[in-house]
Amino acid sequence: MDDIRISLDTTGAANDISVVRVDGVVDTMTASELERVMNTLIDQKRFRIIIDLAGVDYISSAGWGIFISNIREIKANAGDIKLARMIPSVYEIFELLEFDSILKAYDNIEKAKLEFRGGGDSIDPVSDARAHNQKEVASASVARQVEVATAEMDVPKVQPTVRKAVEEPVVEVPTGERNVEKTVLSLIKADPFYTIREITQMVNSESNGSGTSIGWWGVWSILRKHSLLSRKKRFRYSRKA
Q: pLDDT confidence of 177, banded at 50, 70, 90?
C-alpha cells in the first residue's frame, strides 16, 4: 500500500520560509494529504515554500497538479514554491513535462533558501540540478530506465489531473484563435524539439503573423488537446506530417 509522510519546518532569518519534507509516493491516494498541507500554508499566508523531495520515489499527475495549481496564488503574493533534492527519475519526468518552465529545482535546500534571501542571482538552479542528477545517474543505464518508465506512463495521461491548474479560457481555444492553434502545430511539424516557452515566443512574434497573442498556458492547452505534451509525442507527430 502506498504511503506518504509529511513533516513541516520553518527556516530563514524571520522564520518566513516553510520547508515541507515529503517521503514516500505522491499519487492519487496520497496527494490529498500534501494538498491539505499546502492549503494550510496558503491560509496562513506563508507563501515562501521549499518542498524537500529527497524521500519521494514517484510523483503522479495528482502530485504535480498540487504544485502547479497553487503557484499562481503564491507568486501573486510575492512568494514561490521551490523544489529541492529530487531523485533522478523524478527530476527527469519533471523536466520532460516542462514544468521546469514554471517551478525551479535545486539539488539542496540551502541553495533554495539562498534564492529566497536574494543571493541566488548567479545560480542556474535547473542546470545545477541537472548536473547533480547526471552524476548520480551513471548516464546511459538510468536514462534508458527513465525512457522506458515514461513510455509505460504514456506521459500525456498526466493531463486530466493537472486540469485544475489550467482554469482559464484558453483551455478550449476560441474560434478566433484557430489560426494560433495551426501555427503551434506547424511549428511542431517544423521542429518537434521546441520547448513550450520557445513555441509561445514564436507564435507571438510578428513573423508568424498569427494576429493573436497567446500565453504559456495557451500553448500548453493546445498541446494537451492534441496529446502532444511530451517531446516524444511531438517527434512522432512531426514524422507523420
A: low
SS3 55: strand
Burial environment of residue 179 by CB neighbours within 10 A (0 to 12, 13 to 18, 19 or more) = middle
| Alpha carbon distance 240, 234 (integer Å) | 10
The residue type of 170 is V
Q: Which of 64, 67, 65 is nearest to 79 (CA)?
A: 67
Bridge partner residues of 8 (DSSP):
20
CB distance 56 to 87 below 8 Å: yes
Contact at 8 Å (CB) between 6 and 56? no
Cell numbers standing for residue 47: 507563501
Of the candidates 99, 85, 93, 92, the one whose C-alpha atom is nearest the C-alpha of residue 137 is: 92
> Measuring CA to CA, which residue among 89, 90, 83 is closest to residue 107?
83
Integer Cα distance of 21 and 10 in angstroms? 11
| C-alpha cell read off for 192 | 518537434
pTM of the shown model: 0.55
Pick from 134, 139, 82, 89: nearest CA to 108? 82
How far apart CA 95 and CA 178 sit, in angstroms, is 28
Taking the chain, what is the end-to-end CA distance rounded to the nearest angstrom? 44
Average of per-residue pLDDT across 225-232: 82
* In the predicted structure, residue 4 carries a pLDDT above the cut 80: yes
- % of the chain exceeding 90 in pLDDT: 31
Distance (Å, whole) CA 37 – CA 62: 15
Domains with residue ranges and CATH for the chain: 4-165 (3.30.750.24), 169-240 (no CATH)
**Cell 498541446 appears where?**
223
